[in-house]
């Protein structure tokens, strides 16, 4: 007797939002060769586009592993990017502060914000509130993206700081962009 699968087929992934495509294409245009990341719904369309553009992807389980992997790639002469949710920044601080910053590895970070505007999960709020201050304490400049119109300029500027000046810098993906838990 044949079995019948009564479950609904999985819904197809929604198309990427304009800002997600712009950020991925800007990363590629500025020579990013590898992306280290912890999986996140909001970052997935960026990662998919990077893969389409020929950028190698390295999925890791913890954010400090992403920093360590990216540091090794940078030392080897590649141009990595680290993508993470703000709630994982706390995990990555020691690796950033004891490896990437003092050795001027110039790692660009793309940080998807949680714990800010419209957040209902109270456990996300403390790190969300502290993200910019934590980065700033380590001397890392953080630049917000609130619309697709500013995505190219901010992303390109962060990559210049990282790859040309040797400074870690962060693109902060604000909730107003949509594409995450808010269902946009």
Description:
The chain is an alpha/beta fold and 184 residues long. 41% of the residues lie in helices and 16% in strands. It is built from six helices and six strands; from the N terminus they run αβαβαβαβαβαβ. Strands 2-1-3-4-6-5 form a six-stranded parallel β-sheet, sandwiched between helices. The longest helix has 16 residues, at 148-163. It is globular. The protein starts with 17 loop residues before the first helix and ends in an 11-residue tail after the last strand. The mean pLDDT is 90.
Describe how the helices and strands are arranged.
Layout lengths: L17 H12 L4 E4 L6 H9 L3 E4 L3 H13 L4 E6 L3 H12 L7 E5 L12 H13 L3 E5 L2 H16 L5 E5 L11
Parallel strand pairs: 1-2, 1-3, 3-4, 4-6, 5-6
CATH class of the domain at 15-100 and 151-179: Alpha Beta
Order of SSEs: HEHEHEHEHEHE
Uncertain residue ranges:
none
What is the subunit arrangement here? Answer: single chain
Largest sheet: 6 strands, parallel
- The third-level CATH topology of the domain at 15-100 and 151-179 is Rossmann fold
Head-to-tail CA distance between termini: 43 Å
Strand content: 15-25%
**Form type:** globular
